[in-house]
Structure formats: C-alpha cells, structure tokens
Amino acid sequence: MIEGTGNDLTELARVKRALEKQPTFLERVLAPEERAQAAAFHGQRLVEYVGGRWSLKESFAKAMGTGIGPEVGFQDLAIVDNDRGKPEVLRSPYPGKVHVAISHTKELVMTNVTLERMAKND
Fold it and tell me: Does 99 participate in catalysis according to the annotation?
C-alpha cells in the first residue's frame, strides 16, 4: 500500500553555488556512503550527484509529511547509484519500501519518492 509520495525540483546552479561558498555543504547533505561515491565525481557531474541527493532527500521528507528537520535529516538517508546507475536506498527511517526516481537536465534535477508499506508476509 502506498503511504506517501514526494516530488522535488532543484536548480543545479544553486547547488553549485552552495558547493563553492559553503565548505561543509557536501558533508552536511551527503551521508558517508554517498560521499564515498561522490569522491569519483568532479565538475558538473559532482554538482548533479549532490543536487540529486539533495532533491531525493527533500522528496523523501515530503513523502513522510515532515520536511527536512528533526524527524528527517540529510544524514538519515543514504542513497547511492548501483552498478547500472540506478539510485538505491541503503538506509532510511521509513520501515517499508522506498522507491526513488531521478532525472536531470542541464539546469535542473527532478526527483520522486514513493513510500510503500509492505504486507506482513513480505
């Protein structure tokens, strides 16, 4: 059963400015697992990766109905790309299944998160 959905649209130029002006931005937004994956990226690809994780976490918080804050923080979620480039949730505060989708243009990243409660025998 679907318990929540959340969408987010983030401007990549805003993420790029934050990365350039705030030395701790990367550590604040990315969980350790995500930082390890991000270490392989540079330039625009790094901006897209960080922007995508920011947006996914915003979408998750919206799906939970909380927003980013005391109940759901950036470090509460870890979402990394698998070998095929599909984002997968490694860790979240939601007890059920978390489905994520991400898409980029040159200027924007759009994400969607769907929270699914699992049946007792799943």
Answer: no
